[in-house]
Amino acid sequence: MCQREYNINSNIKKYTHLTFNERTQIERWYNKDKRRCSEIARLLNKSVRTIQREIKRGLVDNLTYNWEVIYVYSAQIAQDKYDYNIHAKGPEIKLGADYELAKYIEDGIKEDKKSPEILIAEINKKGLKFKNKVCAKTIRNCIHKGILNLKQKDMIYKKEYKEKNKEKYTFIRIPAEMSIDFRPKEIDTREEYGHWEGDLVVGKNNKGAALFTLTERKTREEIIVKVPNKKAETIVKALDGIEKKYGKIFKDKFKTITFDNGVEFRDYKGLQRSYDKRKKGKRVDIYYAHPYRSCERGSNENNNRLIRRFIPKGTVITPISEEFIKDIEQWINNLSRPMFNFKSSSELVEINI
Question: How far is CA 348 from CA 159, 183, 247, in A?
């Protein structure tokens, strides 16, 4: 009997939050494979109700080519809502819920002039029992946040808290229709010139300057632009510079660009909008690959490996000169490629333009 009860209890599922990787799996199974919630739940070892709630959280409406509204599940939108709810909830405040412990600490600091470290040591030494256990650092943080009825002047040794200068970032949600799923299928054939893939080649510790790279899908033509940082507005300025360089032929040369889901590429409005405010409409159509699917931008990834022959991973890019970067760009474009019968990208570009 006991053995039977143990076997039953061992099969009980322990609740765990869905990961972003699991959400991308749900997106594929629900949107493309048309799997039922019960089947998805079985594949992920989750309850059916969990999958139903998750799909409801990430459901968005899309407009098809026939101007019909359909509802699809977006892993990114579901993840955004999950992250927001987690941060909005805030951490559990132990001292705020344990009034006896809070009163003991307040009296100990105000009346007895003891430090948080001494109070915690006394609690452990005397074996005092409270609802929660805290450390001295938690007490100091609660005083700083105003959770306890204490101020810094009540402390024996006062500590000055400096607010961290955190860069504010507004998360930009990508419309579902800009997914690579909605990119025209003829682009996959690589028969038309003007469809590009983009990415960043970063330096040591992912800091400092980086290389904004664009690879044309048909000819593997490469464009490399050194940028001072990974900010979204910096990438928009880099694309503005490319538009200025090519002028009137820009729209013929750049029809679409497919990026990954990095925050540096999420300003889709800035990327699509011309630097010349007099020009109406989009200068280029932007699409985004699925998360963790670098194979959907394979041409760009392969050209980035060629760049790494000259700039290995772990190299600081900031001191590298513009001339050296242009030399790498020309080397790639003049490289004889077996896939093109040993013609270079530069030779193919001359034919296609």
Answer: 66, 24, 21
